[in-house]
Amino acid sequence: MGQSDIANVTDDVVHGENHNTAWHEGNVGNDSINPYKPTFVDDITKHLGVQISLILAYSLIILLGLVGNSLVIYMIILYRNMRTVTNYFIANLALADLMVDTVCLPFTLVYTLIDEWKFGKVMCHMVPYSQALSVHVSILTLTVIALERYRCIVFHLGQRLNRCTSFVIIGLTWAFAAILAGPLAIFREYRHEEIPYIDWRIAVCSEKWPNGTNRDAVIYSLSMLVLQYVVPLTIISYAYVCIWVKLKNHVNPSNRNDSFVRRKKTTKMLALVVVVFAVCWLPFHVFQLTSDLDLILKFKEYKLIYTLFHIVAMCSTFVNPLLYGWMNQNYRNGFLMFFRCEHKPDTICPDGSFRTRSWRRVIVNGRNDGQPAAAV
């Protein structure tokens, strides 16, 4: 089963030996495989209380993700001294999360609740592809951020990536992510099925691999687990451990103390972003792989468990802005200024205050009276 593909959960149930929960395509005309007749009352996600909880959970994730990630991008565009290489990559993370919140989660919620694909053939291919694409972009961007900070801090390279180079790297992450997510758009099928016993015809959106077996799904899931989780997090962990050791043992001159403290705080913040991503996605990756291996399909609560793990994974789409606001003074003050509807500033100063447009002649290239403006 492909990455983040909740639309295909029900298609896998047909392979379960002891499963007695009827989902839209799991029991479609397939008595030779699954002898149990459709009994929709066995599906716990059909209970009113569960459906209300799922609606509230997904709606909260969508709302927080839209507001938080939009604010992150808005701040980076608005404040001159926030336009740093690291912040460009953070904006790329926010853009990927916005894609999930707008293109994926609303459709996923509806499909989970009604067990029928109501959005046509094009969206059947695009929704799982878009979600997989955004997750690939996120982990690749986190890897790039870690390697860039590793290059600058561990090797004392004063010259960081310029704006043009950072944009090229961002473009490459999207291109590479598009290739990795491609199979979820290509090997997919939109069809209509007749459900016996209840005389019901429904639309189905599911994976359809070339050889018609589950082997390709297992291979893809294993590949994604390695390429999207194990390898990137290994690289990131190594980079941040080296950075932390370097900063811990570094004796910096007193005149660079502020810069050193900011660098250390920023590294903590970015490392925590990676930890949150890893923790949110680990249960989903493990569950998905065991599902493709037909190890847990016998549980009648399979769909609910899958949905809960999916919700946990999706929490990563709104947590990042909360971390920025909690651990970074620039973002925190910018968020507060936005919600207070205060006058738009030009830049954020080292103490977290603001300078308005009247200070244009004083503030040049993010500096004020020879002191560096605080930026991530």
UniProtKB/TrEMBL annotation:
Q: Does the keyword Cell membrane apply?
A: yes
- Protein keywords: Cell membrane, Disulfide bond, G-protein coupled receptor, Glycoprotein, Lipoprotein, Membrane, Palmitate, Receptor, Transducer, Transmembrane, Transmembrane helix
Q: Which GO terms describe its cellular component?
A: cilium; plasma membrane
Q: Which InterPro entries does the UniProt entry name for this protein?
A: GPCR_Rhodpsn, GPCR_Rhodpsn_7TM, NPY2_rcpt, NPY_rcpt
Molecular functions (GO terms): neuropeptide Y receptor activity
Entry keyword annotation includes Nucleotidyltransferase: no
Q: Which SMART domains match?
A: 7TM_GPCR_Srsx
Q: GO terms for biological process?
A: adenylate cyclase-inhibiting G protein-coupled receptor signaling pathway
Superkingdom assignment:
Eukaryota
Per the record, the similarity remark reads: Belongs to the G-protein coupled receptor 1 family.
Please report the name of this protein according to its UniProt entry.
Neuropeptide Y receptor type 2
**Which species is the source of this protein?**
Triplophysa rosa
